[in-house]
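User: Structure tokens for this complex, please. No commentary.
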Amino acid sequence: MVMKADVASAAIQELKTGDSWVIMMSPQGKPLEQKRVFELAQVNHLVILCGHYEGIDARILEDIDEEISIGDYILTGGELPAMVLVDAIVRLLPGVLDEESPLEESFTKRLLEYPHYTRPVEYRGKKVPDVLLSGHHENIRLWRKKQSLLNTLLKRPDLLLNREYDQEERALLEEILFKGDLT
Ligand SMILES: C[S@@+](CC[C@H](N)C(=O)[O-])C[C@H]1O[C@@H](n2cnc3c(N)ncnc32)[C@H](O)[C@@H]1O
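Assistant:
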């Protein structure tokens, strides 16, 4: 079964305003990345079209500004992908989070975030790193940056390609790669 283009188009036209951006959730779209989520959070009005069955009659593409995929796998319908997109965008809207939080999160600078700890200070014989208990903000910032680079290197080295590095990041990477200093 295929959804009809004329019906979908009429629904889009009904919802569209002068500053709408029309997205179709589709496994054939560009895979969603955090950089795009930041951009879409700036758009005034989004219309999100969800397919079902085999999808929507290909002639609908004329009404669509962008096709977005949430990953290389097939879901039954576009509703869950649309909810994923909406959740990712809404948490970036002003007032939802502390303004600094999204800037440190995984993927924002093509890096994974550093590890987090909470109480107790010691659990299963493992202690929260001393630097985090030191209250020394600059040392904590540097430790987090280094752990972020290390985490990315170990878990998602693909993110480190085609990325620009500032001087501090280069120095930290040097410590990791050439001096074997992971602390
Ligand atoms: C069963 S899928 C259709 C798959 C299509 N026949 C194909 O092979 O490309 C039905 C609908 O679910 C949504 N969908 C499924 N997987 C998706 C994904 N990975 N990302 C975004 N939307 C997806 C789309 O809206 C799609 O039109």
